[in-house]
Amino acid sequence: MNDLIQSQNSGTNHWFKSVLLAGMLLFAFYASTHMVAAGDTWVAMACGRHFSNHGVDTVEPFSFNSHHAGPTEEDIQKWPGWAQTLCKPFSLKTIQKWHPTGWINQNWLTHLIFYKLASWFGEDGSYNYNTLVYWKFGIYFLAVICVYATGKLLGAGDFLSAAGACFAMVIGRTFYDIRPSGYSNLLVPVFILLLALAVYKNYRWIWLIVPLIVFWANVHGGYLYAFIMLVPFVGIHLLLRLPRRWSVCLGFVGLWLVMYLMSYKFISNTNYLKIQELLGKPDSVPVLFKDKILIIWGILAVISVILTVQKSVQSPLFYAYHIGVGIIYFLSLAPRFFLAEIPSRLSPHFKEIYSHFVFSSQITFLFVAIIGCLLILALALKKERFVALSAKGIYHTVGASIVSFIAMIVFNPFHLTNLTHTFEISVSKHAESWRQVNEWKPAFDWMDKTSTKPNPVGSEEAFAVLCVLTGVAMLFWLIGHFLKPRPTTKGNRKKQRDQTPVDGFQWPKIDLAILIISLLSMYMAIRSRRFIAIAGSAAAPAVFLMLLQGWQMFSARFSWKTEGPLRPIFWPPAVLKTVRIGTLFVVLGLGTFWGMKYNAFILIPGRRMLVTTASLCE
Known about the structure:
The chain is mainly alpha-helical. Helix content is 66%, strand content 0%. The longest helix has 34 residues, at 348-381. Mean pLDDT is 80; it is low at 1-11, 275-283, 488-504 and 602-616.
């Protein structure tokens, strides 16, 4: 099996790798043929023309009710008190430069690129829209290679890495269009590839996220994904490098803070939706830094640090404190979620919206509390079972993250507003209003209680297959990790000697950081279907890696029980040859079929290549 699937086996034929590469490019071609026909393409062209002629500004040119450049003194007076305090040391001109208001077009560079591509390659003053089609194909040719490379780095091997990359293209196909989000669909797998390179090759690779994020922040607002995912990436590797007690201390203190912030956001959103007002109750949103529960968190954190520093404190008392306090803290926050009332005066439609919001918040809170606690204990007690970034790698990752954040603000025409605007539409209290837009609604129609019709944006069937496959792979993989032989009796001493690695095989380690990033990406897609495209690329390498590792662990355990040596079971050469030849015929068959369907065979020697939007897209 391993010389088909594992990249470490040098026996993998070069011709077979060429077939896999052709297959990946073929699936990327197929994924690019779907036309979403979103209006964003033409909006982008109009905005790009404006930026080309007038430069990047904050005055909207398309409406009589356009946004005007700011802020003015009157605007600043309406800002929250803490924001006004921060503004006092600076002049109005400085504030207008570093935090402009008005028309904030985060996709300005993509819009300019679209316009330039169409105008530069046009003839006789007309636009050449075919260049935008070429752009789309190029984006996803690069994306599929990045997904494949990530799978290879993680250890999934040639065959499964290619299969995962092809599957990712199928998942995202109905969401791929000529719009700014295409850059995020590419840059998400590039970002995850850089994280994998930093862990498995050299930690200095992480510094490439600086130019990546700077470019990303100018082409699409999805750059926030990078900063969101850097938090668990750094946090997990930091906990793995710290002493056991400090891992538990900082892990639980961080988890309690996250739980508090989730409760605060929930209350803020209910206030924004005017629920308390409908219930006849006063505004119940606590002041952030004066909230009693947050003050209690600070006291509990200090006690946790004291217990960690005091070596005389016995381990049972240390762990009992953190687990017991974790349960009490959870119970103190739970009423904020589970005692939420639904006003009877709400309309049926809005009642469904609010009910879904409450239920999803409750499930998320429970999931974070339970899984977070289990992961912290696992990271602290079983450090040797996880892939860990070196200490230097953690320092460099933190440094690269800070530099990326500063550079993202400096090298952007909207500076700080590029960040605050992203926050406003993504994770603030106003973000819930976006849930009513079709592409922001849940991935699966049965989760959307507010609509009786299928969602017209994209298709979620392939993503549903990914969700099921992920569940099966995780169960298979988790069971496999508990199968590692632990002989203790005298009769098993011979087998204990035979547990040394055979043919380079060792019991697989868990790359928890990449796995968490994959699962978080899938969760984002389940909450909002617009993220299905990036979820496929982010999760596919980890899912197919779990399938491979599950097979290795089960077969190694079986071999150990029956023969003695600890090694995975290999497929016979005849089976491997059959699979390779079968893969070749599948690639040739799909290539012929899709080529004829989309009129791709139009390159005639000696003639000009004619490609049109209609001929290459449905």
